[in-house]
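From the shared-data thread, chain only:
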Amino acid sequence: MTTSAAVTLADLTARTGLDVLAHLEREVTIPVVAGLQAQGDLIVVPLALLDDVTVPPHTRWKDVPAGGIELLRGAAGGNPHTLVADPGTCRWSRRVNDSQRLALGVLDATAVAYLIHPEHGATGIAPGTYVIRRQRERSESTGRLGNRFIAD
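Structure, as tokens:
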């Protein structure tokens, strides 16, 4: 996967073998964001913005393979959020200390990495270190005000 030039959704699906739903425009250039971004159930946060999240010093990192790593499967429809990157440019660990217990893990990328989802398409993550967390919202679904995870 080459990430130095603008990447379209068609490029990314062809390179990864992952597919998106037919209604998505495949010739759109995937935006690359260096800050906070969200994709359905997930939110990507630069590690430097989170005071209550740390990566243990002896964390075991896993290189992100060409086929990607499934981070979370959505509740409604069961569609996966998958992290993909060029081989050797992104590593992933589920080992992260998060006092709010929202983190799925942390990624460290030296080139653009992507999150791809069948319903949402793809988003680009600029090089850096980011925590990927579940999103939550306030809800009265059980008759009491509380927090619940966003499920798309």
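The first helix runs from residue 9 to 16.
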